[in-house]
Each structure stands twice: as C-alpha cells, then as structure tokens.
Amino acid sequence: MAENKKNPVWELFSSVRLALFLLFTMAATSIIGTIILQNQPSNFYVEHYGANMARFMQALDVPDMYNSWWFMVILTLFSLNLIVCSLERIPNAWRLVTMDNLAAEPEGLKKMGLHRSIPLGGPLPVAVNKTAALLAGKGWKAERRDLDGATLLFAQKGAWTRFGVYIVHTSILIILIGSLIGSPRVAKDILKNPFYAFKGSVNIPETQQTDVIYSFLEGVGQLPLGFTVRCDFFTIDYYPNGMPKEYLSKLTVIEDGKVVLQQDVEVNKPLIYKGITFYQSSYQPYEDFIITVRNNRTGASTTELIPPAIEVPWKEGGARFGVINMEARGEAVSRIKIWFTDDQGEPSKFWLEPGREALIKRSTGDYTFSAKQLYATGLQVAKDPGVWWVYGGCGLMLLGLMVAFFMSHRKVWVLVSEERGKVTVLFAGNANKNKLGFEKTFAELADSLR
Amino acid sequence: MNSSQLFGFTTLLYLLSSAVYIALFVFKNKKIGAAGTVLAIAGVLAQTVALGLRWEESYDLGIGHAPLTNMYESLVFFSWCTALFYLFMEFKFKNRVIGAFVMPFAFVAMAYASFAKGMNQEITPLIPALQSNWLIAHVVTCFIGYGAFTMAGGLGVMYLLKKSALEKGLTRETLTGSLPDLRVTDDITHKTIVFGFLWLSAGIITGAVWANEAWGTYWSWDPKETWSIITWFIYASTLHARFTRGWSGSRIAWLAIIGFVSVFFTYFGVNYLLAGLHSYGQS
Predict the structure, then answer these.
(1) Are A398 and B217 inside 8 Å of each other by CB?
(2) What φ, ψ does residue A140 adopt, rounded to 5°?
(3) Residues in chain A, pLDDT under 70
C-alpha cells in the first residue's frame, strides 16, 4: 500500500497542515459573527452598514453565518480531515501496539535513551526468573524469548494509550453527528419531518392550554405536540431589592383527556415529557385579572377572569363587579380599583393589591376579595434527539484528552545474558510521553534489582 | 474581619509578592526569592479565607450562593486560580523567577476588582438563570483553565525575552540572566497549555450542558461561547503544531501569548464590548 501513489486529495485530507489551516480558519471566521449581530431583521444591517454592504452581507449569509453554506463547508472539510487523518494514522498506532518487541536487537537496546547494565550472581535461568519476578512485583508482566546464550524479557504498560488522541477525534465526530441528529434544519429539509427535532416557543395564558407550539425555523410554523399543556399558574418572585428571584409556571400535561403530569417549571428546571422539553423563558402580563369574591355569610364564592372596565355579573351571589382603575409599576400592576354592588345601596369602590385580600362589609354580608393579574408564561420548547450523542461525545472527549495528555506507553526490555559464567542484566526502556516521569520509574526498577 | 478587608489584604500581599519576584528577576538575589513565595502563599491563604467568608456572608444575607456570580467575584476567583496554579507550578518545577511574569496578573486582577470605576462589590442575589448546580462546576473549570493560560502567556513572554537577549549576544550578567533555560521554559509552557486545554474543554462542556438545561440549547453561538471555542481552536492548533509538526520555542511562545489574548478577550472583552446571553459579568 505504501508503494502505491496516493490520491492527492486523500493526501491533502490526511495532512495535519490542513487541520491547522482549518482550525485557524474556523477561529478567524467565527470572530465575524461575534462582531456583527446575528439574526437581525434585514433593515438592521442596512441601517448599520449601508445598503451595499448589507447586500454583500446577505449574499454571504453573514447575518446567520454559523448556519451559512460556507461555514458548513468548513465544518465538513474539518470533519473529513479528522476522519482521513485518523484513518491514516491508526494503522501505525496499531502496529506500535501489537509489534513484536521481543524481536528487538540486543545491540539496539544499548542505544536506547534509557539503559543500564547490572551484574548479577547465579546461573542464567535463576537470574531470568528473579528478574521476571521482580518486574511482575512492580506490575510489569513480562514476555520472554530465549536467545543464543541469553534471555530477553519485555514488558509494557499503557500500550492502548496510543489511541487516546483518536478517542478525542472520534468524540468530536460523535458531537458533530449528535448536532446533526438534533438539528431542526436537518429534520425539516432532509428528513422532511420537522417534528423529529425542533426548537420553538409558545405562550400560554394562565388557565389556558395548548397542543401546538411554534417553531423558530422559518417555514415550519405550528407543530402539534400530540398532547396538551395547560398553564395553571404563573408567578414572579422578587428579592427585597427588586431583582427577580424566581419565574415559576405550574404546568399540567394532559393526554387523551387525562392528566399525566403536573410540574412546577422554573428557569434551570424544565419539564420533560415524551422527549419534548419545556423551558421557562419569558412571560407576558395582561391587564386582565383573576378575581375571587366570597360572601363570608353564605359561603358562596366565584372566581372570574375579567378584562378591565367590564362589568361581570355574579348570579348566585346576586351581585355585579368589575375593575374600574389600576396602577402599574412597570408592566406589573401594583393595585386595582374594584367596583362592586349587590344592588343594596351605594356600590363599593376600593383599591386592592394583587396577592392581598380586602374585606368589604355590606348589608348582604361580608365579602372577601382577592385578585391576581393575569400572566401568560412564555415557554421555550425543544426536542433534541441528538443531545445524548453530544453529551456522550463530550464525556468521551474528556476521557480521551486525559489519556492523550497524561498517560503514556512505557516499555521495558531486560536482556539477561551470560558470558564466561558471569551473568549481566541489561535494562532498557522508553516512553512516548512524560519521559521525565518514566526516567524515575526506570531508575527505581533498575535499582530494585541490586 | 470581613471578606472585603481580607480581599484588600490579599491585594497588598500579591503586590508585595509580585514586587519581590520582580526584584528576584532584576537583581538575581536568590535569597529574597523565598520571601516572594511566602507572600504569595500568605496571599492565597488570605484570599481563600476571604472567599469562604464572602460565601458565608451571602448566607447571612439570606441569599446564599458561591461567590462566582458577577465581574467582581469572577476577577477575585481568577486571581485566586492564577496564584494557586502558579504556586503549584513553582513547587513542581522549583523555579521562582517565573513568579515575576505571573503574580502581577493575580495582583492586577485584584486591584482592578477593588478599584475599577463602576465595579459593584456588593453581594447580590442570584437571578433565576444562575440558580443552578452547574454554576460552580462551570465557573471553576473555566477559571482553572484561564489561570493556566495566564501562566502560559507569562511564560511565553519570558521565553521571548530570554531568547532575544541570547540572540543579541547578551550574557549571564544582564537582566535576563536569571531566567531559566529556554528548553525548561518551553517544556513548562507546553505542560501548562496541555493542563489548561483540558480544563477549558471541561469548562466549555459544563457550560453547554448547563445552557441546555436552562435555555434548551447546548450551543447558540452566543459571543461568549463563540470566543471560548475560538480560544479552544487556537490551543488545539498549538498542540497539533507541537505534537505533529514539532513546533517549539518561539513559535509556541507566540502562540501561548496569542492564546492568552484570546482568553482575555473571551473573559473580558466579550463582557464589555459584545452583547449576548452571558451578560451577568457586566456589573
């Protein structure tokens, strides 16, 4: 195979030079997207960079450069480079792992960076056994081969660590495969099944439900979930200094008319059902209110969702009420003015803070009021069947990096020879990495024979 | 004694330690070197206690969280990682002059955190996005990497200084005479980059897992993410150039410096110059 003239394309892709070039290219081009804001409406670019420049940018997909054809080409070239480079070098690594180290020339051992001769008493077989036992005691399992008037022992550790770098390369490919599996674009354009992988969002007002979400990807639109999600409740908690402390939605999943899951969703605590994940991502306050009124004398009560300035009848209670005014602090309403009448005398008008109660005494009874501003929870919704590939690849990468960086292939040869009744032991060894560390190990090993 | 007093004390210790290491470098008086180490160790100890105190103080305020959540806290932690990593390397390689090129970074980070205009030193509560167990794992892994890369950058400068002095035919008597042998510096630079690369990878990965848990996407090409991968590409190139093409010496020294600039931009530049999801660090 080595004799064959290699295909020049293969040659190119098997070169580290190309890898260096591509790594540099990816680093350099990636900068563009951090300077030019991505995924803005097209007039943004016209305003900031002028019409001509904007046209040029659009032509090169700069506003969405990380999904552009040319960036994909670079990534593809990089993947091919990784594959070919690895395929080209793995056979060599395999040869180094499986080679017959006992075929080493005795003369060659003396030329190794680390070698040491030690005289030893006793006949040859005894010396060989003693040396082998010593090696075994330190975890070096030796193979042996009898030569003319001598015996060669060989032991190695960490031969497999020569594959560490290929573990890293493979892990990168696994991550890239995972990202393709989970890509909404691939699902839409290649699999023709946008539901296979998607990212989108949905706003659900409290007490309402949905069985569709809206994909972020252009041309997909609504995606049916196959089940229903209801938002029972949404709230924002604040710290005393006014910073938001918690966004919380109480969600209920309903399938075939049955409640199958109820969960509080917060930022960092998503809800997962059937491979679809719902993340707390935003909210929308309304001017509508959920008002609960209770007649403490009769026990009758009602909860109504009411828009502002609309009079709502409460038939069982024999009364009518509505919201006639409100004060807002930012988008959150700090208090509302309620108008209430039981048609006995003047109507009551009073301010009520959401979350608090108001007690109104009238001739028909004492009424307790509470109110909550209506919110819609904004959920990010994603289905990513490739994520476990990505996570697996990431784990493998860390493992591979540790092997590649911190573990080495260490070899020890021991030639036990007899000349004119004198037995000599020649130690030799090498390591492919961390040579300094191996020097110590080697010295200890040789010293222990004395 | 509260944490901010102790942080002030730390800043002073790092300043003195840097000064001693620089004096060691300039005057080649080996006797004073030990003082630099003692001061650096005292600084790290004071800072460790201060970090613990600040953590506890946050619980006293009823908003307990690790002190890793805004620019001030991150600078303090960066300084701590850099100093700690430097001390580790000093003990491992038994060389003190390197301190003159690393400890000033630990000092400057502390000084900047303490004196920069508009730096909010208050312990603030955690916004919902940061309320996650991944916070500690992500920040710690990233900053160990940053600390290592800072050291590698300092070593790169050291290497180039020595090299240019040697090329000009300057001998032991001159300023750079106290610097370690070029081969030693080159070796330590490489090992430091290898170490940092592993932690940077872990930092990017923990960040990705966290992002997926909080935002539903493990990678969104937000400027911070993008710059971290740019940094990763730079160091990946450096390692490949060395492992397979035998690069060493000045080229690696330059790459260590370029890499550090990229780290600096990832950490700092992105927060101040570019908009994105990682805006916690701005205040």
Answers:
(1) no
(2) -100, 105
(3) 1-5
In A271-409, the DSSP E strands lie at 271-273, 276-295, 301-306, 312-314, 319-329, 332-341, 348-352, 357-362, 365-383
How many whole angstroms separate alpha carbon B213 and alpha carbon B138? Answer: 13
Contact A123, A129 (CB under 8 A): no
Q: Give the ipTM of the model, two decimals please.
A: 0.92
Let me know: does A141 contact A88? Beta carbons within 8 Å. Answer: no
CB contact under 8 A, A24 and B244: no
Are residues B132 and A398, on separate chains, in Cβ contact within 8 Å? no
Cβ separation A239–B198 shorter than 8 A: no
Q: Which residue type occupies B143?
A: F
What is the tens place of the pLDDT at every residue in B199-223?
Answer: 999 999 999 999 999 988 999 999 9
Residue B203: exposed, middle, or buried by beta-carbon count in 10 A (0-12, 13-18, 19+)?
buried
Q: Hey, of B220, B233, B235, which one would you mutate to test binding to chain A, going by the most A CBs within 10 A of its CB?
A: B233
Strands (DSSP E) found in chain B: none
Is residue A104 within 8 A of residue A154, CB to CB? The reply is: yes
Residues of B with CB below 8 A from A270's CB?
A: 213, 216
- Burial class for B114, CB neighbours closer than 10 Å (0-12, 13-18, 19+): middle
Amino acid A331: pLDDT: 72
- Work out the angle at residue B167's Cα, subtended by the Cα atoms of residues B166 and B170, and round it to the nearest 5 degrees: 45
The model's pLDDT over A127-158, given as tens digits with 9 standing for 90+, comes to 899 999 999 999 999 999 998 889 999 999 99
* Chain B residue with Cα closest to A402: B198
Q: What is the DSSP letter of B266?
A: I
Whole-structure pTM value: 0.90
Do B125 and A241 lie within an 8 Å CB cutoff?
yes
Q: Write out pLDDT tens, residues A168-192.
A: 999 999 999 999 999 999 999 999 9
Q: Which residues of chain B lie closer than 8 angstroms to A27, CB-CB?
A: 230, 233-234, 237
Three-class secondary structure of residue A431 per DSSP:
strand
- Is there a contact between A394 and B205 if contact means CB atoms under 8 Å apart? yes
Q: Which among A26, A281, A401 has CB closest to B201?
A: A401
Spans in chain B with pLDDT lower than 70: 170-175, 275-283
**CA A52 → CA A38, A58, B108, distances in Å?**
18, 10, 45
Cα distances (Å, whole numbers) of residue A434 to A75, A439, B162? 33, 9, 25
Contacts of A279 in chain B (CB under 8 A): 214-216
User: For residues B51 and B76, what is the distance between their CA atoms, to the nearest angstrom?
Assistant: 8
- Fill in the amino acid letter for A153: L
Of A199, A244, A381, the CB nearest to B128: A244
Q: Are strands A244-255 and A222-238 parallel, antiparallel or unpaired?
A: antiparallel
How many Å apart are CA B239 and CA B200, to the nearest integer? 14
Question: Between chains, do B132 and A239 touch, taking CB under 8 Å as contact?
Answer: no
Chain B nearest C-alpha distance from A398 (Å):
7
Which one of B198, B258, B272 makes the best mutation probe of the A interface by having the most chain A beta carbons within 10 Å?
B198
**pLDDT single digits (tens) B115-140:** 988 888 989 899 899 999 999 999 99
Q: CA–CA separation, B151 vs B105, rounded Å?
A: 9
Residues B166, B168: Cα–Cα separation, whole Å:
5
